[in-house]
Design brief:
There is one protein chain. 36% of the residues are buried. Strands 15, 16, 17, 18, 19, 20 and 21 form a seven-stranded antiparallel β-sheet that branches. Strands 7, 10, 13 and 14 form a four-stranded mixed β-sheet that branches. Strands 9-8-11-12 form a four-stranded antiparallel β-sheet, with no helix packed on it. β8 and β9 form a beta hairpin. The protein is mainly β and 423 residues long.
Length: 423
């Protein structure tokens, strides 16, 4: 198709591998790597491919209605969907994957000469985190985004298995940052904005939406007047709890639902262009009132960087968060605490976990002086989302959340978007 502009070039009228793209009136460049760094001899960035470059066929009796069996070239029997990067000179765990027919899979047959900085990342090698289809389209016939990159929200069978978003920007082979990608592999889960469009097809939908109903988690009754926010757009639930938001560019965003008297709900949602996502929400009733921790002094046992500092858990935004670390074990203990500045009689703490960084095992402590602590809550089975912790009212100036085991079982640390304290 002429609309599939970033693809294995199958027709002379198509542009081949492109270096310039127009998106919403702006031009973005992805300079072409030198052909010799990623292509075998005889292939160029504008080479035209025929079907037999990858396929063989048997049993043909004619082009009209023939019983034809089409296979990947049998000289390359390894399934490309299971192939992954390797730091070896071969560039893959096997040279028998069909991609190796044309591509020098790690560039110049050298582990230090990858054609793209992303491919050279050591933690992308030798495991499922380095699978080609983690980021690239699962069908190599061509796709509508630079370098055949595909999102998990793309339509089947083209979707990748792990790439959720790419930052809309000019990129070079050596200019990538891990923060330019949002993936499902547990390492790059932070928000990416603005997001490269889901497709570069002028006739394809450029936005999607989300709709559903908001109810009370205890009674099931509709909750009217709740505020639903996602991707900078908001809606208010009707008398039957229904809401709908349209005109959202495809990508993954943090969605929040809030109403006085309820704990704010916050979760990542993935919007697909041309599709309205159904997202029903059950709000948990809380004490409401003033969040005593908002804007107060936060400290932590550890935090990954200044972008994930402890104070991010008290800034009033569910899109920022404290992140303990990137390398801690699944059962590493880390803590976050807040100094309320003076003593209050408190009885509730709401912990809005960020995405998959929740702790299924955690404890809550209070203190009058910051050195002597009293445990007020403990669980080993916390679900993803927001944990509402209530306890007998007590005097306290400090509140501490001690995270003891990750919810996913992966070694990705803990993340708290907001830690709220109520009287």
């Amino acid at each position: 198709s002429p609309k599939s502009s970033s693809l294995h070039r199958v027709s002379p009228d198509l542009p081949g591998m492109r270096s310039s793209f127009s998106v919403n009136g702006a031009t973005y460049t992805w300079p072409l790597p030198t052909a010799s760094t990623f292509l075998k001899s005889g292939w160029a960035t504008d080479s035209v491919m025929s079907c037999d470059a990858c396929h063989t066929y048997t049993g043909s009796t004619g082009p009209h209605g023939s019983a034809m069996t089409v296979n990947i070239d049998p000289a390359y029997p390894t399934w490309w969907k299971t192939a992954y990067l390797s730091g070896s000179a071969n560039g893959m765990n096997s040279t028998t994957v069909i991609c190796a027919k044309c591509h020098d899979l790690n560039g110049a047959s050298s582990s230090s000469a990858w054609s793209n900085q992303v491919h050279g990342e050591s933690d992308h090698h030798g495991s499922s985190d380095g699978k080609c289809v983690l980021c690239h389209s699962q069908l190599p016939h061509g796709w509508k985004r630079p370098r055949m990159l595909a999102y998990t929200s793309d339509g089947a069978p083209y979707a990748s298995t792990g790439l959720r978003a790419i930052r809309l920007a000019n990129h070079t082979a050596s200019g990538w940052s891990e923060h330019d990608c949002q993936t499902s592999c547990g390492e790059h889960d932070s928000s990416v904005s603005p997001v490269w469009p889901l497709v570069l097809d002028p006739d394809a939908p450029t936005t999607g939406g989300v709709a559903g109903k908001v109810t009370d988690s205890a009674t099931g009754a509709a909750v009217s007047g709740a505020t639903v926010s996602v991707a900078g757009k908001t809606a208010t639930t009707a008398s039957d709890g229904a809401y709908a938001i349209s005109g959202i560019a495809g990508g993954t965003y943090t969605m929040t639902v809030s109403k006085t008297g309820y704990t704010t709900w916050s979760q990542p949602v993935t919007i697909t262009n041309g599709v309205t996502l159904t997202q029903n929400v059950a709000l948990v009733a809380g004490t409401g009132g003033t969040n005593l921790a908002l804007g107060k002094s936060f400290t932590a046992s550890h935090y990954e960087s200044s972008a994930y500092a402890p104070g991010k858990a008290g800034d009033g935004s569910d899109s920022t968060f404290w992140w303990s670390n990137n390398t801690g074990g699944a059962s590493t203990t880390e803590w976050l605490r807040v100094d309320l500045g003076t003593t209050y009689k408190i009885k509730e703490t709401d912990i809005a976990w960020y995405g998959d960084y929740w702790a299924k095992e955690f404890r809550v402590y209070t203190s009058l002086n910051g050195s002597t602590w009293n445990q007020v809550y403990s669980t080993t089975t916390a679900p993803k989302g927001t944990s509402v912790v209530t306890f007998t009212a007590r005097d306290a100036r400090y509140v501490k959340v001690e995270c003891r085991r990750t919810g996913t079982g992966r070694s990705t640390g803990y993340g708290i978007a907001e830690l709220k304290v109520f009287q």
